[in-house]
Write a structure and sequence with these properties.
Blueprint lengths: L15 H18 L12 H16 L6 E2 L10 E2 L1
Helix pairs in contact: 1-2
């Protein structure tokens, strides 16, 4: 097969602390920006925030120091700037 790009993946052992942090980040962002698509029973948008939390932890293990993880006022802007 031609033109197939191999994409490496990161695997993490997730802990409850990270999940709770991600849920808190999502709650704060919803309070800040509003949530026009709220479906309380099926709302799993916090999983994206969990991904950010994991990425933040991973990049720190790589010794990267010249980056900022923006938690506030992040709508439509990058969450990570380096």
């Amino acid at each position: 097969m031609e033109n197939i790009e191999v994409m490496p993946f990161l695997f993490f052992d997730l802990n409850e602390t990270w999940a709770k942090k991600a849920e808190a980040i999502r709650k704060k962002r919803d309070e800040q920006y509003g949530n026009i698509y709220e479906e309380a029973q099926t709302d799993v948008r916090w999983v994206g925030d969990l991904g950010e939390t994991c990425f933040n932890a991973w990049i720190k293990t790589k010794g990267e120091k010249d980056f900022v993880y923006h938690l506030d006022n992040a709508a439509a802007d990058p969450n990570f700037v380096g």
